[in-house]
C-alpha cells in the first residue's frame, strides 16, 4: 500500500510541476503534409530539462509514441520536433498532441478539432493576457529615454506578445505593437525610446490593448513625483505567494570598503514560487521599494539582491529590511539597531535567532552558537585524561606497595605457624 501511495505522489507532482509546455503545433502545412508537420516544446523553467523519460504522441491508438531519448531543452528554450524525425502524423481533423510519462500516461495534451491549412496551434484566444507591473512616467532629469513600462506574465503558459500592444491615454501616443513571447513569471521592460510612448508628468494612463484595439488593462495616475516608480498589484491572483514561504535570512548593511550591501531572501517551501507582486524595501521612510517581479525561487533556494540592483541603502546604525506588497502590506520585517563592519546580520534558522557573523551570501547561515553539551563532553574527556595521566605516574609506586604488603602478610603468617 505504501508503494502505491508513493508512486501516485510522484506522478501527480511530476504532472503539476513539470516546466514543459507544447508551445506550437503545425498539423496542416500548405500543400503536402508529408514530413512537413512539426511540434515545438518549450522549457518554461530556469534549468535545463532532460526529456529522456518522456514520449511525444498523437491520439491514442494512432502513430507510435516517439521516445525523447537523448533530447533536452535549455532553460527557457525550445525544441522543434519534425514529423520526418518522429514519425508522428497529425490528422487535419480530430486529433491531439500529447506528452506521455514513462508509464505512457498523458501529462500534457492539446486537442485539435479542425486545423486550417498553414495555421499553427494552440490558438492564443484563451491565453492569460500580460499585466502591467510597474512604470516610470517622470524620471529624474530629462524624461527622454528614461521612461519605461514593465509588463509581466503571471500565468502558467507563455504569452504571444504579438497579440497585444501598449498605449497611454486614448488621445496620447500611438499604440506600440509588442513582439516575441514572454514566459511564465517573466517580465519585460519597454522604454520610451523603443515604444515611442511618452507618459505625461501630470495625468495620464497606461493601457494594454488586444489585437482588435480593445482595452484589456488600464491604470491611471496623477502628478507623480520625480523618479517615482508606480507599481501595480494584481488582485485575486490564483498564483498568490504563500506569505510565510518567502523570508529574509541575511542583511549585509555595513560592508568593508570595496564591497556592496545586499539583502538575502529564501523560499522555505518545497515548491518553486514566483515573486511577482512582491517588493524588497528598508524602513518606510527610506529607499524606494525594489520590484521582485520576474524572479522565481526554486524550493529552499537562497537569493541575495545587491544594492547595485535594488538601490536600497541600509543605515549603519538602525534600520529595517522588509518584504512588502504593492499596497505596502508587510509580509516580513526584520529590524536592527546596530551593525558590525564586515559582518552580516543573519537568521540562524535552527534557533530562530539573529546574530552577526561572517557573510554567507546565497547560502545557508552557519551555526556559531556554543553547544553546551559538546563543551561539557570535551571538558569531561579532558579531566578524565588528566586523571589517567596521574594514575600512570603513580602505578609503579602502588605496585611496589602492594608487593611489600603481600610479603609482610606472608612473613607474619609464617611466624605464627
Q: What spatial form do the alpha-carbon principal axes imply?
A: flat
Number of helices: 5
Query: What kind of oligomer do you see?
Result: single chain
User: What is the C-alpha radius of gyration, as a whole number of Å?
Assistant: 33 Å
Q: How large a portion of the residues is in β-strands, by DSSP E?
A: 25-35%
Q: Name the helicity range.
A: 10-25%
Count of individual domains = 3
Largest sheet: 5 strands, antiparallel
Give the strand order, joined by hyphens, for the main sheet.
Answer: 26-21-20-29-30
How would you explain this protein's 3D organization?
The chain is built from five helices and 30 strands. By secondary structure, it is of the alpha+beta class. The radius of gyration is 33 Å and the shape is flat. The protein has helices at 2-17, 83-86, 192-195, 307-310, 372-416; strands at 20-26, 38-43, 49-50, 55-57, 66-67, 72-73, 78-82, 93-100, 106-114, 131-136, 148-152, 159-160, 165-167, 176-177, 181-182, 187-191, 203-209, 215-222, 230-231, 246-252, 262-267, 273-274, 278-281, 290-291, 296-297, 302-306, 319-325, 330-336, 344-348, 353-357. It folds into three domains: 2-122, Immunoglobulin-like (Sandwich), CATH 2.60.40.1260; 131-231, Immunoglobulin-like (Sandwich), CATH 2.60.40; 246-357, Immunoglobulin-like (Sandwich), CATH 2.60.40.
What topology emerges from the helices and strands here?
Elements (H helix, E strand, L loop, with lengths): L1 H16 L2 E7 L11 E6 L5 E2 L4 E3 L8 E2 L4 E2 L4 E5 H4 L6 E8 L5 E9 L16 E6 L11 E5 L6 E2 L4 E3 L8 E2 L3 E2 L4 E5 H4 L7 E7 L5 E8 L7 E2 L14 E7 L9 E6 L5 E2 L3 E4 L8 E2 L4 E2 L4 E5 H4 L8 E7 L4 E7 L7 E5 L4 E5 L14 H45 L1
Antiparallel strand pairs: 1-2, 2-7, 3-6, 4-5, 4-8, 8-9, 10-11, 10-19, 11-16, 12-15, 13-14, 13-17, 17-18, 20-21, 20-29, 21-26, 22-25, 23-24, 23-27, 27-28, 29-30
